[in-house]
Amino acid sequence: MRKTPLFAAVILLSAAAGAPDIAKAVEGATPAAPQSGQQTAPQGGQQTAPSGQTQTKTKKPKPDKSSSSDDFLNGWHKAYALVYDKGDYEGGIAVLRSLGNDDNADVATLIGYASRKLGRYDEAKLWYDRALAADPNHARTWSYYGMWHAEQGNLLKARDDLAKVREICGNTKCYEYVALKEVIDGTRTY
């Protein structure tokens, strides 16, 4: 799903309102909740009771997993606020790890970002690789990975990542492209 129209609207709003940080709010787009296991319909079966009567036995339906999805989303928003709003990278990583969804591309990307901000570059690389294994077309991961490469002094690789972001977004106006381009050009630190 492309978010280009949403990003364009946010950029216009931020320019009109004079609030450049509104674009940052879009970064907090809620990730997809983890997929719960396949639920099966209750199945019936017949058993013969000791008295010779036939009984129908039904299995109980599996419990609703929506509370675990709510827990995930609440944890995600808490971690997001800790990392981006408060700069509490350790706290954000702890919350993200407690979610138990390390293979979710959004979770792994945010852990990678927080690790990079803490100067743990090797750890950040592992998390970005994990995020890309989960979703090879995750534009934010490619953008942050490009920033990681730029911080390491590898601008050639950062430019490769920028090209990948452009390919995923389909243009050069998406937030992920603009942010990485600014880092490569030296006009932004992130």
Walk me through this protein's architecture:
The protein has helices spanning 4-17, 22-27, 66-85, 89-98, 105-117, 121-134, 139-151, 155-169, 175-185; strands at residues 44-48, 54-58. It is mainly α. The protein has a two-stranded antiparallel ribbon. Helix 3 (66-85) packs antiparallel against helix 4 and helix 6 (121-134) packs antiparallel against helix 7. The radius of gyration is 22 Å and the shape is globular. The two termini are 25 Å apart.
Q: What's the short version?
A:
With about 190 residues, this protein is mainly alpha-helical. It has helices at about 5-15, 20-25, 65-85, 90-100, 105-115, 120-135, 140-150, 155-170, 175-185, and strands at about 45-50, 55-60. The protein has one domain (about 5-20, about 70-185): Serine Threonine Protein Phosphatase 5, Tetratricopeptide repeat (Alpha Horseshoe), CATH 1.25.40.10.
Counted up, domains total 1
The run of helices and strands is HHEEHHHHHHH
CATH architecture assignment name: Alpha Horseshoe
CATH fold-type name: Serine Threonine Protein Phosphatase 5, Tetratricopeptide repeat
User: What is the CATH superfamily label?
Assistant: Tetratricopeptide repeat domain
Head-to-tail CA distance between termini? 25 Å
Number of β-strand runs: 2
Instruction: Characterize the largest beta sheet: strand count, sense, and whether it forms a barrel.
Output: 2 strands, antiparallel
> What Rg do the Cα atoms give?
22 Å
Principal-axis shape equals globular
Name of the top-level CATH class: Mainly Alpha
Widest sheet, order of strands: 1-2
Structural class: mainly alpha
Helix content: 55-70%
Percent strand equals: 5-15%
Low-pLDDT ranges:
1-28, 36-51, 53-57
The helix count comes to 9
Average pLDDT, rounded to a whole number, is 78
